[in-house]
Specification:
The chain is mainly α and 407 residues long. The chain has one domain: MFS general substrate transporter like domains (Growth Hormone, Chain: A, Up-down Bundle), CATH 1.20.1250.20. The protein contains 17 helices and 4 strands. Helix 1 runs antiparallel to helix 5 and helix 12 runs antiparallel to helix 13.
């Protein structure tokens, strides 16, 4: 039986084991979400849907995650974070299993809502655990490792998932993810310690979760990170969900080229995410975020302006896009995680995660409405979507200065 954790861990070896299992859980969670986007052309053809319907398919997961994340804010701080994480991950795996057996578009939409509902609370809990047990001076590095799950999902998960989809059908990647999820649960139970520091009444006087939620939402210092999160998401999720359909329909790539996009993008970001995490700890999270965000404008403009282009050039541009657009998330989340006191961190991260998910879902859906599919299947107005992304990115640079670090 794990002993209750009453103070931050100081044993580096134990920290590494915990960070590893958190990264593994986050990997499966992230892969379940990101695999939808490269499969976009397959879904649009299989279910005979347009860009708006596909945008709804992507956004349904995110919006569900946001809504249930708010519900989770009412009770997540009342339980051991370890058990909360494992129960949520079990529900998430069930939702993913439902996706694998979806016979039509409406059922798949329902399954994505189920998976998203658990996934939203899952992400908030992972970040809360990092905030609770990792000292602030190593938090940027730890966040970078866990955030590198996106890179691993891109390098390993997406190419394997697309290969499975090509060979056995689009359902098989979801089936594989569900099975992996059920297998990793007992490992997580063994590795993770009981995390009850936030429940220590001697350190943090108890109050109702509704009161905690109201305190989280109404506290003046929390408004800056919440608004910042909205523009952080609009900076990426107006572009990302439709990248694969755009590259196939407008740039001239074939479906079998898509794994290379995610492989090389993920391969580089696997290393750069960790490097950016270390830079954030050394030079300041705000400074690193601002620099990366401003530079990220360049690949965004290049991506949305692509026409018929050779694969090597596309790979160069999209890899730079992924390095910078995903890299800015490392200092951003490190700043946000540190913007709240431990006593209400679970509620804060749940609300923040809800804002993150709803914002990304709205961004995807709005982009789907703006994009128009021409008679030759090309997507029109991607440049306009890119303008929204650039504005959001630059405005977030200003908003980042308003975030106050609490510890």
């Amino acid at each position: 039986m794990s002993q209750p954790l009453t103070h931050p861990l100081h044993t580096i070896q134990k920290e590494r084991a915990i960070i590893f299992i958190l990264a593994a859980l986050q990997f499966l969670h992230i892969l379940d979400f990101v695999i939808m986007m490269p499969l976009g052309p397959v879904f649009m053809e299989s279910f005979k849907i347009d860009s708006a319907a596909f945008g709804l398919l992507v956004s349904s997961y995110s919006i569900s995650a946001g809504v249930f994340g708010l519900i989770g804010a009412l009770f997540l701080d009342s339980y051991d974070r370890k058990m909360s994480l494992l129960v949520l991950f079990f529900g998430f795996s069930v939702g993913t299993l439902l996706c694998a057996f979806a016979p039509n578009y409406p059922f798949l939409l329902f399954a994505r809502i189920v998976a998203g509902g658990f996934g939203g609370m899952l992400g908030a809990t992972v970040l809360s655990i990092i905030g609770d047990i990792i000292p602030v001076f190593r938090r940027g590095t730890a966040t970078g490792v866990v955030m590198s799950s996106f890179s691993v999902a891109s390098v390993i998960g997406i190419p394997i998932g697309l290969s499975l989809a090509n060979k056995f059908g689009w359902q098989f990647p979801f089936l594989s993810l569900a099975i992996a999820g059920f297998l990793i649960l007992p490992i997580g139970y063994k590795v993770l310690p009981s995390i009850r520091y936030h429940l220590d009444s001697d350190v943090h006087p108890k109050q109702s979760q509704l009161k905690s939620l109201i305190q989280v939402v109404t506290k003046k210092d929390h408004m800056a990170p919440f608004i910042f999160m909205v523009f952080l998401m609009f900076g990426g999720f107006t572009i990302i969900p439709f990248l694969s359909p755009f590259l196939v329909s407008n740039v001239g790539l074939v479906f079998s080229d898509l794994p290379y996009i995610y492989f090389f993008g993920g391969l580089f970001t696997f290393f750069t995410s960790r490097f950016i995490g270390k830079l954030s700890d050394r030079y300041g999270k705000l400074t690193v975020y601002q620099i990366i965000s401003i530079i990220a404008v360049i690949p965004i403009v290049l991506v949305v302006s692509l026409t018929k282009t050779s694969l090597p050039i596309v790979l160069t541009i999209t890899t730079l896009f992924m390095i910078l657009v995903s890299g800015r998330m490392v200092p951003a989340f490190a700043m946000i995680t540190s913007a709240v006191e431990p006593r209400i961190r679970g509620s804060f991260m749940s609300v923040n995660s809800a804002i993150q998910q709803i914002s990304s879902g709205v961004a995807s859906y709005v982009a789907g409405l703006i994009l128009v599919q021409a008679p030759d299947n090309q997507l029109v107005n991607y440049e306009l979507v890119g303008m929204i992304s650039v504005f959001s990115l630059l405005f977030s640079v200003y908003l980042a200065k308003k975030i106050k670090i609490a510890g």
